[in-house]
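ugh ok fine here u go
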Amino acid sequence: MLTPQRRRMLGLAECPHCGHELTAPLGAGGKTARCTACDQRFRLPSAEMLFNNAAVYLMLNQVEDLHADDTRREIRFSA
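structure:
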């Protein structure tokens, strides 16, 4: 069971019709949603999957940000 705080946390889902990424509260896991891009209805994944999708997204973006920081440092120190 999700606590009220965890229900309000946002997760990520992808529309199966158009591939648009959507944010959804974890409490909406397993419910029907409407894509804001193509207006099609689809069932959201479970709260656990919404959370996992968001975690993977954040980890990948953090890695990309760190790589960009390393590149900037290399350029700055190589001059």
